[in-house]
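Morning. Coffee machine broken again, so started the prediction first thing and wrote up yesterday's gels while waiting. Chain of 189 residues, entered below exactly as on the submission form.
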Amino acid sequence: MIEIDASALDRAEKLLQGIPGAAKKAANTAARKTVRGARKDAVQKVRERYTIKSSYVTRTISFSTNLGGMYFGFQSKGRVNDLAYFKHSPGSVPKRRPPRGKYLYSQVVKGQGGTIAHAFLAKMKSGHVGVFHRTSGNSSLPIEKLSGPSTPQMLGSPTVADFIQKRMEERLAANVDHEINAFLMGYRT
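Came back before lunch.
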């Protein structure tokens, strides 16, 4: 969980103490704008490094705000992602079994892909498409699904987490200043 100190909101309370309810409105609006931007930054930073679709990242992200305690945070919960969610070749399920010696190519981290021996792309009866391999040699069953890293793991890498935290702090300061100016100039009531 990435958590930032919202002490910038104290400044809003001091400057807007003459306007009833303005500090709380300014704090809530600034926090909401910061959270929206943080989600966008998180997806962008993860997609710079990994070959996953943005929808698989955004569905695991949640934000919590506790402006009474003057902090708000960002967390991600989720299971490991299927290897099929990342870049792979062939791109769709083949109609026939590929010829001997032709392997599935997968790339999780950009620029660091490779072939996976004896792996294949298949569609289950439920409609789920996944990357599988046979667990007991050449017999047809059982098969095992291959997975990549989970979204919390991707968001928790030091480069991504530090970037998101830094951007959230910058955004919060800018949004608080914007809201304070809006109240002081009379644009908001």
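Helices lie at 8-15, 22-49, 54-58, 151-156, 158-184. Going to sketch it on the whiteboard this afternoon.
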